[in-house]
Write a structure and sequence with these properties.
2 domains, Glycosyltransferase, 8-stranded antiparallel β-sheet, Beta-galactosidase, Chain A, domain 5, alpha+beta, 17 helices, about 20% strand, 9-stranded antiparallel β-sheet
């Protein structure tokens, strides 16, 4: 086969299995009336009337104590034992920290105010030493947040405190101080009553699901909660339907949110188990849909790909959650009919493509403009990646780096004139751009074909990006073609395109003598050959965000051409 043939895709009619996904109203966040309504609600929650509504009988004890199935971070717990609250890169003294510290990252404030630190503390010590740390911290929190505060009394944080407070009751309710114990139990009852009134106003997304899960937990674990449980289960079912797509994908399109949701549902199952009750049907149904979709995002190293803010999620965390949910026996989904992600597997090779429009602004914070990007792994070795994201990391990235990771150029896809395929607005939300993605897929004994297109450049440049992919049946040959197709026959594309392939950490790219290809040496010793046709190839510097927050220097292959020229390329593995 000649060098030119190496970059051609075998001909096939790929229209057999097609789909069209739309992003309707995707750039619209909360309306002005919704924002004003939220402010008025907060004013109402500060009123004497709301304080009166929070009064009532408080429990003498919890009906049951669930066992949290999810392990915390023992390293963070050891720091807590040493008197330090360390999370999201922020380090504060447990005896002096301000829970509303404006200098602390939002992730730290949520972790502290949601009592998620109890999980980490329990991973490091038994309840005796742990209680000596936890109870003074809880007492300080109660003193500082006795009344409504818009940040610490957010519905999802109230729910989080209920879930973690119940699961780790031996750590916060072991005291012989009856005044303290009564204060904690009374606070839990007040959080539940606040949820009764605030949960319906919680915005769509993970936070709304968390809020209803906490409401269900309060109904199960605080005496006399049958009505609250029933209402919580009805709301949870609707919140899950809004967040979890029919194919098991998640509306935010971020794998880190799939992990968070999976762990939340497992904890809620533990609450039901503590009461010796079967979990409500929507919980089991959500898990059944979620597992194959999450496994579809997982690459050869056991980590989900870097999509829409997710970065370097620890493979052990993913494996543990999947095992607890019975996911080991579940096959990964191949075709994301609703989420848009497409998974191709052949031999040792795994290819995942983002073939859906970006998430709508109402449910996603920090989403990326990386439509039609793909990730490719050879066994456990990431070969082609996206640069990463700012979520799920142990500390914050710089604002400049976090913003750069969201751009189209930080993804393995085509970029026109260095313009994002979907606009990233100054407020951080995704604006207009990709509204439609069309996918055709076909498989045969010869291999797998994908024919993809998005309209992100249609409004501004009158073209659509079309990407065609072929993966051979043995997984040793991936071929692609990227082109800009004019929406009007008489109008030709103008400008410059760059088709970028960000390489995995540790891969060395050696350009060939003819300037049309490169040898890719993997850390394992394997070699892949890259060839390009229709543009000039350059090997440039790139970076990849590791799960420990390191910015790892890497390389990228960049094929540059005039916008009217299609670019063909291929990755072929050498040897077996």
């Amino acid at each position: 086969m000649s060098n030119d043939d190496d970059a051609r895709i075998p001909g096939v009619d790929v229209a057999a299995e097609g789909q069209r996904l739309l992003r309707v109203g995707g750039d619209k966040g909360p309306s002005l009336s919704e924002r004003l309504g939220a402010r008025l609600q907060h004013l109402g929650y500060r009123s004497p009337l709301h304080r009166l509504r929070l009064r009532g009988r408080f429990p003498l004890r919890l009906v049951a104590v669930p066992a949290d199935p999810i392990a915390g971070d023992a390293g963070v717990g050891e720091r807590l034992l040493a008197g330090r609250l360390v999370h999201a890169g922020h380090n504060a003294g447990a005896a002096t920290a301000a829970f509303d510290d404006p200098a602390a990252p939002p992730a730290w404030r949520d972790w502290v105010n949601g009592f998620a630190w109890l999980r980490d503390l329990a991973a490091a010590t038994e309840r005796g030493p742990g209680a000596r740390v936890a109870e003074p911290l809880v007492a300080r929190w109660l003193d500082a947040n006795a009344e409504f505060d818009a940040a610490s009394w957010r519905p999802d944080l109230c729910a989080s405190r209920l879930l973690f407070g119940a699961a780790y009751a031996p750590y916060i309710l072991a005291s012989n101080d009856h005044v303290y114990r009564s204060a904690v139990l009374n606070a839990m009852a007040r959080w539940a009553r606040h949820l009764d009134r605030a949960v319906d106003k919680c915005p769509d997304g993970i936070g709304r699901v968390t809020a209803f899960a906490g409401m269900v937990a309060a109904g199960l674990l605080i005496a006399g909660g049958e009505t609250r449980q029933a209402r919580g289960e009805a709301g949870l079912a609707k919140a899950l339907e809004a967040l979890l797509l029919p194919d098991g994908g998640i509306a935010t399109r971020a794998p880190v949110d799939q992990i968070v949701l999976l762990e939340l549902l497992l904890l809620l199952e533990a609450v039901y188990a503590a009461r010796r009750e079967p979990a409500a049907a929507p919980v089991g149904q959500a898990l059944a849909r979620l597992l194959p979709a999450l496994k579809a995002m997982t690459m050869g190293d056991g980590r989900p790909g870097h999509w829409h803010g997710s970065s370097g999620i620890d493979a052990g965390r993913v494996a543990a959650a999947l095992a607890l949910a019975g996911g080991d026996a579940v096959q990964p989904a191949r075709h994301g009919a609703d989420s848009g992600y497409q998974r191709l597997t052949a031999g040792r090779t795994i290819l995942v493509v983002d073939a859906g429009p970006p998430p709508v602004a109402r449910v996603a914070v920090g989403a990326h403009a990386g439509t039609l990007a793909f990730e490719l792994s050879d066994g456990p070795q990431p070969l082609v990646v996206n640069c990463g994201g700012a979520r799920g990391l142990p500390r914050q990235l710089s604002p400049e780096l976090a913003a750069g990771l969201r751009t189209t150029a930080a993804h393995s896809t085509l970029v026109l004139d260095d313009i994002n395929s979907t606009r990233i607005r100054p407020d951080g939300a995704l604006g207009r751009g990709v509204e439609e993605v069309v996918t055709h897929r076909q498989e045969s004994e010869e291999g797998h074909w994908l024919d993809l297109a998005h309209d992100g450049y249609a409004r501004r440049h009158g073209v659509r990006h079309r990407r065609r992919l072929f993966l051979s049946a043995d997984g040793t040959d991936l071929r692609g073609e990227d082109a800009l197709e004019p929406l009007h026959p008489r109008r030709k594309p103008v400008g410059r395109i760059d088709v970028r392939f960000h390489l995995g950490a540790g891969i060395e790219a050696l350009p060939t003598a003819d300037g049309l290809g490169a040898l890719l040496r993997l850390p394992s010793g394997r070699v892949w050959q890259f060839r390009a046709r229709g543009g000039a190839l350059a090997v440039e510097a790139s970076l990849w965000i590791a799960d420990d927050c390191r910015s790892v220097p890497t390389q990228q292959l960049v094929v540059s051409a005039r916008a009217e020229e299609p670019v063909s390329w291929s990755f072929k593995r050498s040897g077996k």
